Amino acid sequence: MAEPSVCIRPQGSAPGVERFEAVLAGQGFAPHRHDCYAVGLTLSGVQRFRYRGATWNGLPGQVHVLHPDELHDGEPGTAAGFAYRMVYLDPALVGEALGGGALPFVATPLLDGADLSPWDFAAPLDALAAQDLVLALAGLLAAAAGRPGPGRRLEQAALARVRERLAAEPQRLPAMAELEACAGVDRWTLARQFRLAYGVSPSGYRVQRQVARAQALMRAGLALAAVAAEAGFADQSHFTRQFRRTVGLTPAQWRAALALPARR
Q1: Residues 140 and 244 reside in one and the same domain
Q2: Is there a contact between 79 and 28 (Cβ–Cβ < 8 Å)?
Q3: ∠ CA(243), CA(138), CA(114), 5° rounding?
Q4: pLDDT (tens digit, 0 to 9) for every residue of the chain, 264 residues total?
Q5: Whether 129 and 194 share a structural domain
Q6: Crossing angle for the helix pair 202-219 and 156-168, to the nearest 10 degrees
Q7: How many Å apart are CA 75 and CA 46, to the nearest integer?
Q8: What is the C-alpha separation between 29 and 258, in angstroms, rounded?
Q9: Beta carbons of 118 and 11 less than 8 angstroms apart
Q10: Three-state DSSP class for 256?
Q11: In this structure, are 65 and 165 located in the same domain?
């Protein structure tokens, strides 16, 4: 059996869009969640994952779709390991591309016969290419969900203000009253509509942004203890738990998978 390893190769990003290619052998991701759509293509091997109470096996040429805030894992289905390409897609971009309303939900995560052109990563991901990619994947999601058309209108401007506020300072925990004032709606309306618009709760979105901040700090070479403090986690153990729940790897494992220098 292959030695346990995870190799992650970034393949370009744009605002709200991140592409990467990964190879796993003998090791998988622990159960975790994203605050974005995760849409990918299995390139080789068998990609096994647990999602919404069932176990799925993605085969080469199959597209897989994971909805925001849905718990899932991922591991090789055979000793040979597997390779895949993935696009992380901001739910706000999907909503904009589809004309507003609630997000499409794809109940069955494996799709056959999908257009594979979005997974040609040879070209750079410039602004126009990113727009084409968002439109293509939003259309795929809507078709797979059987979406009938624009849903009920949401308080998009209010929700965007809250989202921007959380993203600007994820290391600082805001009071609920502060978010209500920012949105101009009560906390229950805010919580319901935020999830409809972005696929995750305000609290879950903040944690995801904390982890994203931590990843940026790790790329910059900060020691893990400093990263935990700068990203607003209570302590290093809290940081490790939340990072693993979000990424599926510990901070040290993620750093090794990207071949980042280890700092103390």
Answers
A1: no
A2: no
A3: 100
A4: 456 688 999 999 999 999 999 999 988 999 999 999 999 999 999 999 999 999 999 999 999 999 999 999 999 999 999 999 999 999 999 988 887 778 999 999 999 999 898 998 988 888 878 888 998 999 999 999 987 544 456 788 889 999 999 999 999 988 878 988 998 888 777 877 888 889 888 888 999 999 999 999 999 999 999 999 999 998 889 899 999 999 999 999 999 998 877 665
A5: no
A6: 40
A7: 9
A8: 14
A9: no
A10: helix
A11: no
What is the C-alpha radius of gyration for the chain, rounded to an integer number of angstroms? 18
- Look at residues 261, 224, 264, 230 and name the one whose alpha carbon lies nearest to residue 244: 224
In a domain, 203, yes or no: yes
How is residue 221 written in tokens? 């070479």
Question: Residues 164, 237: one domain?
Answer: yes
Neighbours of 178 (CB within 10 A): 12
Alpha helices in 98-151 (DSSP H): 127-145
CA distances from 50 to 54, 55, 204, 261 (A): 6, 4, 20, 32
162/140 same-domain check:
no
- We report the CATH number of the domain holding residue 81 as 2.60.120.10
Q: For the chain, what is the domain count?
A: 2
Q: Is residue 83 part of a domain?
A: yes
Compute how many other C-beta atoms are within 10 angstroms of the C-beta atom of residue 41: 24
Total count of residues recorded for the chain: 264
- What whole-number distance in Å separates Cα of residue 163 and Cα of residue 69? 15
